[in-house]
Amino acid sequence: MKKAAIIYWTKTGNTKKVADAIKEGFEAVGFDVSYLRVEEAKGLDYFDYDLVCIGFPSYEWSTPRPMTIFLRTNLAKQRKEGLVKASAPKVPGKNALIFCTYSGPHTGINEAIPAGLYAGQFFEHIGFTVLDEWYVLSEFHGHDKASTIGKMGDIRGKPTKEDLMKIKEDTLNLAKSL
Ligand SMILES: Cc1cc2nc3c(=O)[nH]c(=O)nc-3n(C[C@H](O)[C@H](O)[C@H](O)COP(=O)(O)O)c2cc1C
Q: Does the pTM exceed 0.85?
């Protein structure tokens, strides 16, 4: 049975909705899923999984502090263990998926891409293959202007049920490809 870990951080719930949809997708194809808030994932060994999924909102086009600390703490430990090697040779069968929710009020998806690529580097450095980065447009809760007249227009209610169904479907397809 293939194993996936879903590790996420959320403040206003958008990223959790995406994490839930991803979990449903994996479970539908019979994956063994560990589903953890980042606070619960201390000490988790990425190498115990076929696929590690990391989710967070974009905060100032980067990862929010709790996620940054998690990623950096793990990398420091992996470095000590000699897992960060010159030229980052690929470790067969070890994969990562990055998912990032964002509202893009100023420059759209460009506010999320740097965060997704940054998070992916923590995996590429230890030889994981980053299968994809998923950027999910989401309401900016508590900020009406950013949710209605920002670069992405009216994003209230996002991610919608349909958006989440699509994420579940994409997860199913990704899981089947492993
Ligand atoms: C402190 C803070 C900073 C944010 N910075 C950005 C940003 O730079 N770019 C962006 O697109 N969205 C930004 N957002 C919006 C969130 O990324 C977005 O609403 C996200 O979906 C929230 O995720 P959550 O509900 O899982 O906490 C910010 C939100 C907060 C609270």
A: yes
